[in-house]
Each structure stands twice: as structure tokens, then as C-alpha cells.
Amino acid sequence: MKKLLLMLIILIGTAVFLYFKTEQILYEPMPVKGHLVVQIPSGASLEKIADILEKRKLIANRYYFLIYAKINRIYPQIKAGEYLIKHDVSLTQISEILVSGKLYLRKVTVPEGKTMHEIGEILADNKLLTGEFTLPSEGMFLPETYTFSRGESRQKIVKQGQRALRKVLQQAWQERDADLPLKNLKEMLILASIVEKETGVATERPQVASVFINRLRRGMLLQTDPTVIYALTLGQKDLGRALTRRDLEIDSPYNTYKYTGLPPTPICSPGKASIMAVAHPDKTPYLYFVASGNGGHNFARTLSEHNANVQKWRRLQK
């Protein structure tokens, strides 16, 4: 009888010990200092995943993880990719994170006003993206910050940029002012690219757009330097110098000092603000503008007013 009682006590004690040990293994958090990014490679075996977690000190013992994963059949559900661990995690929590598929998203930013050649360089230089890619025609990409998981294709970002642009253009075209001298979405995009290159001051964009809209209505030359620069470089490089009088004589459909109307294509990828500025330009009498010296521009209704502003600008340059 005593032996049976002793054995019962031992069994109960063992069961209690195993229960609390299991609780400790499964639910006791491993300390994570700061934020930790762990990568699970594509095609990694369960043993490889256990090794990675153990080396990154996210689990106390790889064998406990292997047993837990096999019992709960979580291995086929683990998604490859990067995961951001922002707090202490237990074995069960890290398993849930890996099964969730909520990957850590990286970012690539395409600034407003970049040409397709420059956008291509940004994508090619990002080593977290993969694969070859084909760029769309000039201007057919919305400058924005795009998120992606490590190893995603550059072509996927290109397609995202194209879709985002189409959405913004359609919205702008549908909501545009009724009396704009623009025939279609392409012309809106072309003019937006010029506005984008002409000013970096957000509040000025509707005013700059109004100048070009007013000139188009009157059949005047647009006379905008960025289009001439594009004629000289085709968006492949920086001009690296100021325009000369000889540059303004180049025989190119992009030379708005020589040919009336809009150039044949956009000269860069404009941002949403520039597109909306063209869709809703300010109602102004302005036909001219020149740099003011403080980052913005001085606007004028007449050539004489404009010439006076030009003289002010030249004095500031000296």
C-alpha cells in the first residue's frame, strides 16, 4: 500500500513537473533587445528554421521547437520571408508570427520629378528587390513610397507605380475644371510634368499651372526651360550647366521656345499634387513667371511686368 502511495505521489509530482516545464517551454518569453528582423529562406526545412531561431535567440532549444511544430503541424504553414520581432516572444508566439505570413515590409521611395531613366536606377540600386524589369514610357509611373517584402521583383514595383498613376489620372480627369484646353489624360500628364519641373514649392503649383493654361488658351509658346533641358538630355542625365541662347534654338518638338503647344511626351514623372494642380489651376491673369530668389517665383500679367521681375532676379544673382 505504501509503495502504491509512493508511486502515486511520484507520478503526480512528475506530472506537475512536466506541466510546469511545458508551460515554461511554451510560454516563457525570450528577451528581444530592440527590434529584430529574422529571415526565413524560401524552401527552408523545419530543421533549418529551428537552427535560425535558435541562433537568433528567439527560442531556448531547437528540439522543443521541432517537437511543438510537428505535434501542431505548423511547418507547412510557415511562410518564407522577413519578420519583424518588436517584443519578447515565447515559443508559441514566434510560431504564430511565422504562420501569420505578416511579413516585414521594406520601402523604396521614388521622388517626384524623376525621369524614367532615374527611376530605373533607383530600382536597380535597391539590392532587396530582385529580377530584371521593363520601364514604361516617360512619365507613366507615380512617384511614391512603395512597400515590398525582401526578394520581391522590381517589375512588381513598376506595375504598382503604373496602376497608381492610372488611378490618380482618372480621378483628376473626371474631376477637372470644365474649361481646360486639354484634350485627354496624356496632355494633362504632360503639362503636370512641366509644372513638376518648374517649381518645388507646393503652394505655387496651381499658379504655375495657370500660367501654362493661359498660354495654351492664347496659342502662345510655353517657353519653359525644363522641356529644352529634356530635349538636350532625353532624361538620361543632368545637364550640369545653365541653358544658353544656343540651346533655346535646338530643333526638337520638346523645345517650347520654338514650337507651340505641349511637347510630345511628359518630361518626368509628376506627383499627385502637380497632376491635381493642372486639373484645378488657379484662376489668374498671369502669363509669365521668373524665380524670386527665395525658392519661389514672381508672377506677371504683362511682358513689361515680367521684364521688371527678371531684372530683380538678375540683381539678386549678382
Could you write a compact summary of the structure shown?
The protein has 318 residues and is mostly helical.
Write up this protein:
This protein is mostly helical and 318 residues long. The protein has helices spanning 2-27, 46-55, 62-71, 91-100, 116-125, 154-175, 185-198, 205-218, 225-233, 272-279, 303-317; strands at 36-40, 81-85, 105-109, 145-149, 288-291, 297-300. The strands form three sheets. It has a two-stranded antiparallel ribbon with strand order 1-2. Strands 3-4 form a two-stranded antiparallel sheet. The protein has a two-stranded antiparallel ribbon with strand order 5-6. A hairpin with a 5-residue loop joins strand 5 and strand 6. Helix 2 packs across helix 3 (62-71), helix 7 crosses helix 8 and helix 7 packs across helix 10 (272-279). Mean pLDDT is 88; it is low at 13-24.
Defining traits:
two-stranded antiparallel ribbon, about 325 residues, 11 helices, two-stranded antiparallel sheet, mainly alpha
Gap between N and C termini: 110 Å
Rg, Cα atoms, Å: 31 Å
Q: What's the helix count?
A: 11
Low-confidence stretches: 13-24
Shape estimate: elongated
Beta-strand portion reads: 5-15%
- Class of secondary structure makeup: mainly alpha
Q: How many β-strand runs?
A: 6
Q: Could you give the order of strands across the largest sheet?
A: 1-2
The helix-strand sequence is HEHHEHEHEHHHHHEEH
Fraction of residues in H or I helices: 40-55%
Mean pLDDT: 88
Q: Tell me about the largest β-sheet.
A: 2 strands, antiparallel
